[in-house]
Amino acid sequence: METSQSKDPRTSHPASSSAGGDAGCDLVTVPARQGLEAVDILRRGAVDAVGPVLHDDGCGTLGFVVPAGTAAGWDLPGSTCTETDGRGLRLAPEPPVAGSDWLLPPGEADLATDPAVLRRALGEAARLIEAADSRR
Question: N or C end of the chain, less CB within 10 A?
Answer without folding.
Answer: C
